[in-house]
């Protein structure tokens, strides 16, 4: 009898570390283990080493957390050092994991696919590269690189090499799949969208969860951004919309999360006297349902061009909570297509604060529309983007790769 497929998941952030991908990797590892696969996780240890994670029963003893002196420090150089340290750690630690059939690594940190490909060859394992964003283009949008520069061209060639060295690429949108085929023709690509645990995040009322009232901060109509405050987000447009609506005392803009841009945003809000803007820290995973239920509408703002390079999974959290979203993105982007096709919100241009303010007023003035769009969003994620559907697809993919290809 053939033993179960042994998959090694490589991710810099795994519960209890708080990051945008934490819930995805936790869901995937636990779901694969529950479906019968043997799963090992290689990840960073929390910055607070006294913090204890209660691992899923099927993962106990199989989550290896390496100390990283740069973990969660702000700034570009500390982030580069954090990523480099993690890349070295997972390759060295992975060498001692026995009987590996398959290695799953996401595109965060950038270029992680290349050392993962080396590890896969050394272990005689298959490699699945999970494409979450398009680097180096994302670095261009974030202002870290110039398109066409020598460094950009080198990184582009490294990106194409990563695809060619992967036994399978899992892309989070059809647009990403097309991008892989354009750079590395012949690469096997499967489109598997990011997901949301629709059992964990579901519509709640304040009467069911007192934390919802806390996160609403007394707002009559709450517009919320929750997540990373970094280079790809266009959070200034929310402040600009808040400035246009600051005389409307009923509307409150709530920012929940952390990141390199947060301090500057808070300073700008104080400078402009925006009493209708509130900033709260990132919340632990168990409070995520409360967070996404603590608003009337969620905002997904991305810098111009970024919506073609990333699909923020926080969008699905809002939809799972039955909250409509306003996507500040290009109309021809993958995210805009989902919002439009599912009827779960509105789309406005990425830097158009006036359009964002107007969309906010339209929702505030139409409670029926808030409920209808929220209901359609919930129905969409239940039908297409649930944890159960995504994990089943990955389990089937992994088993097929290790059975049909003779691992």
- In CATH terms, the superfamily of the largest domain is Glycogen Phosphorylase B
The CATH topology of the largest domain is: Rossmann fold
* DSSP, total strands: 13
Write the element-wise H/E pattern from the N-terminal end onward. EHEEHEHEHHEHEHEHEHEHEHEHEHHH
What is the level-2 CATH architecture name of the largest domain?
3-Layer(aba) Sandwich
CATH secondary-structure class of the largest domain: Alpha Beta
Structural class: alpha/beta
Radius of gyration over all CA atoms, rounded: 21 Å
Main sheet strand line-up: 3-2-1-4-5-6-7
In short:
This protein has helices at 22-34, 76-94, 113-123, 137-141, 150-165, 174-183, 210-216, 236-244, 262-271, 288-293, 314-320, 334-342, 353-364, 367-384, 387-404; strands at residues 6-10, 38-44, 63-66, 102-106, 126-131, 168-171, 189-191, 221-226, 251-256, 277-280, 297-301, 325-328, 345-348. With 407 residues, it is α/β, with parallel strands linked by helices. The protein folds into 2 domains: 6-195 and 386-404, Glycogen Phosphorylase B (Rossmann fold, 3-Layer(aba) Sandwich), CATH 3.40.50.2000; 210-384, Rossmann fold (3-Layer(aba) Sandwich), CATH 3.40.50.
């Amino acid at each position: 009898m053939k033993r179960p497929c042994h998959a090694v998941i490589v991710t810099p952030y795994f519960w209890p570390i708080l990051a945008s991908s934490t819930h995805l990797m936790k869901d995937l590892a636990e779901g694969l283990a529950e479906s019968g696969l043997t799963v090992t996780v290689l990840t960073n240890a929390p910055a607070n080493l006294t913090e204890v994670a209660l691992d899923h029963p099927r993962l106990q003893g199989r989550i290896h957390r390496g100390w990283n002196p740069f973990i969660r420090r702000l700034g570009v150089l500390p982030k580069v050092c954090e990523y480099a340290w993690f890349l070295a750690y997972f390759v060295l630690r992975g060498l001692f994991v026995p009987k590996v059939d398959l290695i799953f690594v996401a595109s965060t940190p950038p270029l992680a696919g290349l050392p993962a490909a080396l590890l896969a060859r050394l272990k005689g394992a298959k490699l699945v590269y999970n494409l979450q964003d398009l680097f180096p283009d994302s670095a261009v949008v974030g202002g870290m690189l110039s398109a066409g520069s020598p460094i950009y061209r080198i990184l582009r060639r490294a990106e194409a090499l990563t695809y060619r060295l992967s036994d399978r690429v899992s892309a989070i949108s059809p647009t990403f799949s097309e991008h892989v085929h354009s750079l590395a023709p012949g690469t096997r690509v499967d489109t598997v969208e990011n997901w949301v645990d629709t059992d964990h995040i579901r519509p709640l009322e304040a009467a069911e969860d007192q934390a919802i009232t806390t996160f609403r901060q007394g707002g009559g109509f709450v517009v919320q951004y929750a997540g990373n405050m970094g280079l790809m987000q266009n959070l200034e447009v929310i402040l600009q919309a808040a400035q246009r609506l600051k005389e409307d005392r009923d509307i409150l803009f709530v920012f929940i999360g952390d990141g390199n841009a947060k301090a500057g945003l808070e300073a700008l809000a104080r400078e402009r006297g925006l009493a209708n803007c509130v900033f709260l820290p990132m919340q632990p995973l168990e409070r995520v349902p409360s967070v996404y239920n603590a608003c009337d509408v969620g905002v997904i703002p991305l810098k111009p061009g970024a919506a073609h390079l990333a699909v923020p999974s926080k969008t699905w959290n809002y939809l799972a909570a039955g909250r409509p979203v306003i996507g500040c993105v290009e109309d021809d982007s993958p995210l805009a297509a989902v919002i439009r096709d599912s009827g779960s919100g509105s789309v406005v241009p990425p830097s158009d604060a006036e359009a964002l303010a107007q969309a906010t007023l339209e929702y505030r003035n139409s409670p029926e529309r808030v409920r209808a769009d929220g209901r359609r969003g919930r129905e969409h994620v239940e039908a297409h983007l649930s944890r159960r559907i995504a994990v089943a697809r990955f389990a089937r993919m992994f088993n097929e790769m290790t059975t049909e290809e003779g691992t």
